[in-house]
Amino acid sequence: MDQGYELPRELKLKKAFKMIARTLLTACSREEFLEAFSAFRRAKQDVLYQLFIHVLAELHENIEEDFETICAETQVAATFDKVEQLEEEQKLDTLAQDRTNLLDVKQELSRAKKAEISYLTSALEKAVAQNLQMKTHIESLKIDREDYSATPDAVKKLRSWYQNLGQAP
């Protein structure tokens, strides 16, 4: 990896560190400093404050240099690069899992559709069988009706025959 190239995460880490260091080192305002040394004369307070500012600037610079050295020694850039590589691999692995999940969903959907087709086929076969039974029953009733339609003629003949019996000599 090129040592001059800094990854975005490394830049964010360094910026955050510098901002925190600056905030901590400038937490004391001039008024607060002068109040802390109020027993001294104004001229002495000004000299002390200038010395304080100089020490803070040197301390800030030393802290930043030490931080840069620690980052180089611990190979922060390489570590961030490895983390990003692992994240990318994990994203790709997640895509592979998603693809597998889609295949599982496809298979489950196919199985469900086949089961539904089987159920509907069975229901259709039952309906056809019931329909056939009803047609057979209707035909049977029609035949019985035709048999009963001859009954009035038979009754007439029977009456006529009975009446003829009663008139017999």
From TrEMBL:
Which residue spans adopt a coiled-coil conformation according to this UniProt entry? none
One family from Pfam that matches here is: Nnf1
Question: Record's superkingdom?
Answer: Eukaryota
Q: Which InterPro entries match?
A: PMF1/Nnf1
**Cellular component annotations (GO), alphabetically ordered:** MIS12/MIND type complex; nucleus
Enumerate the subcellular locations listed in this protein's record, separating them with semicolons: Chromosome, Centromere, Kinetochore; Nucleus
For this entry, list what GO says about its biological process. cell division; chromosome segregation
Record's protein name: Uncharacterized protein
- Supply the alphabetized keyword list: Cell cycle, Cell division, Centromere, Chromosome, Kinetochore, Mitosis, Nucleus
